[in-house]
Design brief:
Layout: E1 15-17, E2 24-26, E3 28-31, H1 42-54, E4 59-61, H2 72-84, E5 93-98, H3 113-127, E6 132-137, H4 146-158, E7 162-168, H5 172-185, E8 189-193, H6 207-213, E9 217-218, H7 257-272, H8 277-286, E10 294-296, H9 301-308, H10 318-328
Parallel strand pairs: 3-4, 3-10, 4-5, 5-6, 6-7, 7-8, 8-9
Antiparallel strand pairs: 1-2
The protein binds NADP nicotinamide-adenine-dinucleotide phosphate.
């Protein structure tokens, strides 16, 4: 069936400016790490993408290695892009990344110029695109000089293969060194993608302050702690959950009894707020306006529809915040 985007798709979404750039991002972005690979069901992920766009999500986040198998999420996204979203390319912000293992040998990993340039060329081919909107270095490389990695990102922008540059998983000192090199090159970093949720708060130590000071946007990934910060695991491990699947990066060591107890208590606060726990976990991140967009995953359209409702209430009373801190402590 031919897809026609909903005419009112921009009415209910919040758009936030990404740092000091000209770019605004939808307050929710959709990540394609899981559920869009070769092992997944086409009709399901196509429906998730259509729902996202119909509800004002403009930003879709990929990486070279998303799948499994690696590369298949980009291929699948590219196929749907050309089938359903061809007429909407200028309404979309598509990101991809390189930095983790992608192919054999010494040039398929980390942060050399050789790897980053070749990897983005491969990603563009897989998605059948001329350019991506944001290209990220996925993780810092302890061996390659930062000047080389940042130089490769600058080159990629000058070649027109990416419009903007982002960094992911960089801790504050190396982030600050990297953005200073990028500034000198004339290609500013506009966004940082860290892991950040109620269960993972390292960014609060200094990264968020640094992002604010340097006017760089922030897009937290795994905001639901891969599904733990939802009502999904309240009564055991469902067979269709990420935790139960063989592929993927969530296993039982993350879902300790202590964590599930905290999830139960957080769920009570969410219910008092009239939200699901997923909605509260997203709102809790968006209450901070240094957060540009929250990068969620979804394995079903109904999950994304649930998460989108977080935007109905992103304000917290002092007593709610205190109660949440008490549980997380
Ligand atoms: N830069 C990096 O290093 C990095 C690393 C990881 C992720 N990311 C990016 O961040 C994106 C999001 O990561 P993530 O998938 O871990 O995010 P997440 O939003 O924390 O977890 C998504 C999972 O939570 C469950 N879920 C989602 N919405 C739900 C709802 N409303 N109710 C109940 N369960 C719900 C689903 O799990 P089930 O599958 O169990 O149903 C879904 O697959 C990725 O796709 C990727 O783009 C980046």
């Amino acid at each position: 069936m031919t897809y026609l985007a909903k005419a009112d798709r921009y009415t209910d979404m919040i758009y936030r400016r990404c740092g000091n750039s000209g770019l605004k991002l939808s307050a929710l972005s959709l990540g394609l790490w899981h559920n869009f690979g070769g092992v997944d069901v086409y009709e399901n992920y196509r429906a998730i993408l259509q729902l996202a766009f119909d509800r004002g999500i403009t930003h879709f986040d990929l990486a070279n290695n998303y799948g499994p198998p690696p590369g298949s999420a980009e291929e699948n996204f590219g196929r749907i892009l050309h089938q359903d979203f061809k007429n909407y390319r200028d309404e979309l912000i598509i990101s991809t990344k390189a930095g983790y293992t992608m192919w054999d040998g010494p040039y398929g990993d980390w942060g050399s110029k050789k790897y980053l340039v070749s990897s983005l060329d491969q990603s563009l081919k897989r998605m059948n695109l001329d350019y991506v909107d944001i290209f990220y270095h996925h993780r810092p490389d302890p061996e390659t000089p930062l000047e080389e990695t940042m130089g490769a990102l600058d080159l990629i922008v000058r070649q027109g293969k990416a419009l903007y540059i982002g960094l992911s998983n960089y801790e504050t000192p190396e982030f600050e060194k990297a953005i200073s090199i990028l500034d000198d090159l004339g290609t500013p970093c506009i966004i940082h993608q860290p892991k950040y949720s109620m269960f993972e708060r390292w960014v609060e130590d200094s990264l968020l302050d640094s992002l604010e000071k340097n006017q760089v946007g922030c897009i937290p990934f795994s905001p639901l702690a891969q599904g733990l910060l939802t009502n999904k695991y309240l009564n055991g491990i469902p067979s269709d959950s990420r935790l139960a699947k063989e592929h993927g990066f969530l296993n039982e060591q993350y879902a300790t009894a202590e964590k599930i107890e905290k999830v139960k208590q957080l769920n009570e606060i969410a219910e008092e707020r009239g939200q699901t726990l997923a909605q509260m976990a997203i709102a809790w991140l968006l209450k901070d306006d240094r957060v540009t967009s929250v990068l969620v995953g979804a394995s079903k359209p109904t999950q994304l529809a649930d998460s989108l409702k977080a935007l109905d209430n992103i304000i917290f009373e002092e007593n709610e915040l205190r109660a949440i801190e008490g549980i997380l402590a």
